[in-house]
Structures
1.
Amino acid sequence: MSRVVVVGGGLGGMAVAARLAKSGHEVTLLERSPDLGGALGSVSEQGFTWDAGASYTLLPAVLRDLFRKTGRPLERELDLEPLDLVREHRFEDDTTLALPTSRAGQLRALDALEPGLGERWATHVDSYTEDWEVLRQHYFEHPWERTDLPDAVRRRFDSREMLHKRLKRTLKDERLRDLATFPFLADGHDPRNVPAWMGLVAYLEQRFGTWHVRGGMARVGEVMAGRLTTRGVTVLLGTPACDVVLRDGRAVAVRTDEGEIEADEVVVAVDPRGLPALAPLVERTMPAIPPVVCHVGLEGEVPDLPHEVVLHGDPLLVVRTGGQAPEGRHAWTIHGRGKIAEDLLRALARHRIDVRAQLVHRVDRSPRELVQQWGSSPLGVLWQGRGTVRARLGPDTPIPHLHTAGAHATPGSGLPFVGLSAALVAERIGPA
C-alpha cells in the first residue's frame, strides 16, 4: 500500500483520490478552502442556487467510468440527462440558431438558417473524426510519452496550423466560424493561438451530445465528496499546501502550515504555479482568465430561453438559465467577455433580453475575485500556440513520484478533460 497525498479538492483531486483509494492506496487529500468541489461547487443566496462553474458536460462516459471504477454506478447516484440543444446562438446579423445535439438536427437547423450551411458544417465536424480517434488512443485516454509519440500524434502537435487559420480557409460563413470558436472564446482563448486539432470539440458535442445533472452540476461534487468518505480517504479541509518536499530529486512529502505529510506519491490537482517546487516547470505557461460573472435571481415573467444562449459580438455574452429557484422565480447566470463598458444586465437588454425589472437579487464576481476564491483560474492553461500542449504538465512531471491532474494538467480544462486527467494519473500510479 502506497501513501498518496493529493493537493486540491476540486473534481480532479477528488476523482484521482477516489480512484487510487479504491485501488488500495492510503490517500490523504488537502484542500485550502472549507469545502470540497472547487469550481464544481455552487453559489446560494436568498433561496437561489447557481452553478459556480460548468452547467453541463460533454463525454458522459468520463463520469460514468469514474463512478463505476470507484463504487456505485452513476445512475444510482445522479440523474445525468441529455440536452436536446447544444445551445442557442444569436449572431451579430440578427439571425438566430437553436443548435441541436444530433447530426441530423444540426443539418436541418443550419439549412433552415441558410440552404447549404448544414452540409458545410457537417463537413467541418466530420473532418475531426480521425483527430479524435488518434488523440483518444494516444493522448486523452492513455498516459502519453512526450519523447516517444506516434507519428500521427506528433504531426498534430507539431502542426503550425491554428484554429483561426483553418476556419478562415474552410468555413466562409462567419456564423459557422462563430459556432466553431465559441467554446474557446468563452474560456478566454484566442482562436489564433489554439491548435487546429482542438476544433474537435465540435465533433464531441455532435457525436456524444451535451448533458446536465438534475439539480445542478454541483451535485457531482457533493456525491464525490461522499464517495471519498466511503473509500476511506483522509480529507483535510482548510489545509493549503505550501510546497512539495523533494529529497534526492524525488517527491517525498507535502509541506503544510502544520508540518510535512509524507508520501510515496504526490498528485497536484491545483495550479502548479502556486507551489515553488513546480512553478519553474510551468514558467512558460499562463492561466486562462475567467469571465465577468453575474448570478441573478428573477421574479415574474421572463423570456423563455433554453439552458444556454450565446449573444455574439463584443462583448460576448452567455446566458445560462438552469439555476435553482423558488416557485415563480428564476435563477440565471450571465458571463461576459471582451469590451465590457457597462453593467451586464444593461448589455443584455441591448440584445432585447431585458430582465432588469424582474431582478430581486444578484451576485457579481469579477475575474480577479474568482481567481482569489478558487486559488487559481478554473479554466486551466491559456493556449499560446502549438507549444502549450507540451508545456502543460501531466500526468507525469520531470520530478519522480510527482504527478499533476485537474484543469491545469493534461489533457486540459473542462469537466470531461479534468475527469480524464484523474484517470491518467491513476493509471500511471497503478494499483497498490
2.
Amino acid sequence: MKLDVDPKQQFEILPELGRGTFGTVFHCREKGTGLELAAKIVPYKKKKDRGDMVREIDIMSCLHHPRLIQLYDAFDYENKFYVILELIQGGELFERVIDDDFVLTEKACAVFMRQICEGMEYIHSRSIIHLDMKPENILCLTKTGNRIKIIDFGFARRYDPGKKLQVMFGTAEFAAPEVLNFDEIYFYTDMWSLGVICYVLNL
C-alpha cells in the first residue's frame, strides 16, 4: 500500500459504478497502460476505520486465485483509501437469483457452487475466514456467462489455531449459528453460508 501518494497521478478516475455503505466504486484506467480497472474509494476519520481497511487490503494482497477478485494497487491519501481492483462487469449473482427472466437450472447451480467452493478452499488454505459469503458478494464475470469471482473481504479474519476467534457481524440470513450466538468460529463457519447460498440458488 502506498502512503501519501496521489493515485490520480497513476490512474484516471472515470464514472461511478456503484455505491455502498462504506465507499464508492468508480471505473478507472491506468494511465501508463490503458488497463481498465475499478477504484473503490473509502473515506475514513477514525483510527479504527483506517485499521479495518488496512486489514482488508493486507488480506487481499495475499489472495491470488482465479475465483477471487484481485487487488491491483492500494493508496492511503488524504484520509481516503483508493483500492484498485480488477474490473468485473457481469453483475451480482444475487441479481440473477431474483431475475424472473433468468432460468437458473440445476446444472448452472452446480457450476456456480463448484467455483464458489474452489475459491473458498483456497481462502481457507491461506488461513483466512471470509465471514460474509452471500450471493451479493459473488460477481459474474459477464452478463451471460457462468464464471464468478468472490468479492468483499471487509469482514475477513486470519485464523490462528492458538487463539479463540469470535465475531458477531455478517449478514444474518447467511450467518452460521456460532456467529449469531457469539461462539467460537472456524472454517466451517463459511461452509454454513455456502450451504445457504446453495439452497437459495435451488429455490
3.
Amino acid sequence: MVENHAPPHPSWAVVMRKTTHEDRRMSLHAIKRPLALALLALAAAAAQAGTGRIPTDQDKLPKGVQATAAVASQCFACHGPAGHSQNEEWPNLAGQKQSYLLQQLKDFKSGTRKHPMMDPIVKLLSDADLKKLADHFSAQPAVKPRHPLAANAAAPAAAATCMACHDNAALPTEPFLHGQQAAYMESQIRAFRAGTRKNAVMEPMVKQLSDSDIKALAEHFSRLAPVAPATSAAKK
C-alpha cells in the first residue's frame, strides 16, 4: 500500500512566510529604533550648539589624549560621550574599571564574547584603539543613580555575595555594578545563568537564582551610589 503524502496546503506556506518576515522585521526594528533615537538626540544637541556635528568630549580632554576622544566617538551614539547610556539595555561605561573595559573589548574582538552590534564595530579597531577606549570611559565621572536607594532599604539575600567582588576597587577584572542600568544587568545575569555568556565564576553563582531574584539584584545595584575609582595600581 502506497501512502499519499500530500504537500502542505498553499495557505500554510503563505502564513509561514509572512510570520518569518514579520519576526525579522520586528527583530530589526527592536535594534534600529533605540539606535535611531540616540543618533537623533545627538544630532539635535549638535544643532542646538550650532556646531553642525555630533558633540564629543574632545575639548574637555587634556592635551596629548585628544586621539582618545576621536576613537571613542564611535561609541558615543549608544553609550554617550561621557559613558552615560540613555538606553536601559546598554551599559553605562563611565567610571568603570579600565582593565575590565579593556578585557571586554578584547573579548568582543576575539569572539569570546558576542553581541550583534558590538562585534562588527570592535573587529575594526586596533589593540591601541581598544586601550584608548578603555582609558577614555574609565576616566569619566561615574553615573549617579536616578533613584538612589534609601538608607534603610533591605538588600536582596544574594547581594552580599556579589559585593565581595563588585564592590571592590582593588579587583581590576570585576566590574562595578553601582549605578549600572538595571535592564542591562538583568539581561547579563540571565545570560550567565543560561550559559550564553561565559564566566567560570559567575555561571555557577547565578545558576540557582530565580527570575525574581535576578530582577531584585539588578534593581538594587542600579540604585547604589558609585564606588570610589580604582587606584592606578589596579588599572595597570
